[in-house]
Write a structure and sequence with these properties.
This protein is mainly α. The chain has one domain (5-291). Helices cover 79% and strands 0% of the residues. The chain has helices at residues 5-26, 30-42, 46-71, 76-104, 108-133, 149-169, 173-183, 189-214, 219-239, 246-266, 273-295. Helix 2 (30-42) runs antiparallel to helix 3 (46-71), helix 3 (46-71) runs parallel beside helix 9 (219-239) and helix 10 packs antiparallel against helix 11. The radius of gyration is 19 Å and the shape is globular.
Length: 303
């Protein structure tokens, strides 16, 4: 590996803990955050970062899925129909990734970094759009969805798209599935998070096992990540029914856009430094703005 384990192991545990909490709280942020962290902070080879991320995330989201299942926040039927499309598509995506690696040769890492950057930027934009522009959907949200034939067909089709994307890049599954659960099926937020995490556990086991067979997983690194991510996802899942997720989703969207820009820079794209520097500033503003607005005194009535 390209990192000195005896020095950075505590940081890897912290990475796992932080990402685990985010996954439990919102259902998103796993592959989209962990893969760029492994590449940018630890210098892990892109294809190994993808495989290791998926293997550790399978265990992490299984823990979160069990917690959400016990809390009654999972639509098991909808998750199953999505998995019918996503599981085979994810396995197919892993083999497409292997074929691309053989075909591209020495230039593969740069190509994969560019693909990853695009996927994570797209995920960040989707996450921000969900947080900022789809608040009005709450009035039509529902706890239960009686599945008709069109719902089942849509679930399978969404699963195929997201599963393939996950198999190739490890990114985007949580945000895209969550957006589909809101727009296509109009589930309430707690059911969105629970169903998203539970479905992701099924999907990630398929993709993770395929990457293990392909030899793309660093087991020592995955184990270290799990030390932090397992308690993190349990805590996040527990808090998910108690903490309003809107601000957190906004912050996460900004972070994902920043991660995508960082990967684009590593792939050779000339991203201006001020753009990268703006990311932490926007995170702080997104975190503090709701509190400042709540504390602002009401305007004095005009005479």
């Amino acid at each position: 590996m390209a990192y000195p384990g005896e020095i950075v192991d505590p940081y890897i545990v912290i990475f796992g803990l932080a990402v685990g909490v985010l996954v439990g709280l919102t259902g998103i942020g796993g592959g989209s955050l962990m893969t760029p962290l492994l590449i940018l902070a630890l210098g892990v080879k892109p294809v190994t970062a993808i495989g290791t991320d998926l293997a550790y995330a399978a265990v992490t989201k299984t823990v979160g899925g069990i917690k959400h299942l016990r809390q009654g926040t999972v639509d098991v039927s909808l998750s199953t129909w999505m998995a019918l499309g996503s599981v085979p598509a994810a396995v197919g995506g892993v083999y497409v990734l292997a074929a691309l690696e053989r075909a591209a040769g020495a230039s593969f890492d740069a190509t994969l970094l560019a693909v990853l950057a695009g996927a994570i930027l797209f995920t960040g934009v989707v996450t921000l759009a969900r947080a900022l522009f789809f608040k009005g959907l709450a009035e039509s949200e529902r706890d239960e969805l009686p599945l008709e034939r069109r719902h089942k067909a849509a679930a399978v089709a969404i699963g195929v798209f997201v599963g393939f994307m996950l198999g190739v890049t490890s990114a985007g599954s949580g945000a895209l599935i969550a957006l589909a659960l809101i727009l296509a099926f109009r589930l309430v937020p707690r059911r969105v998070v629970g169903t998203d995490v539970f479905h992701a556990a099924l999907l990630l086991w398929a993709a993770g096992l395929a990457h293990i067979v392909a030899g793309n997983v660093d087991f020592a690194l995955a184990g270290t990540l799990l030390v932090g991510s397992v308690p993190g996802v349990w805590l996040g899942s527990h808090w998910s029914v108690r903490i309003p997720p809107g601000t957190l989703r906004t912050v996460l969207g900004v972070v994902l856009v920043g991660a995508g820009l960082g990967l684009a820079t590593k792939a050779g794209l000339d991203v201006p430094t001020p753009v990268l520097a703006a990311v932490p500033i926007l995170v702080v503003l997104a975190t503090l703005a709701p509190r400042l607005l709540r504390r602002r005194p009401p305007a004095s009535p005009s005479l």
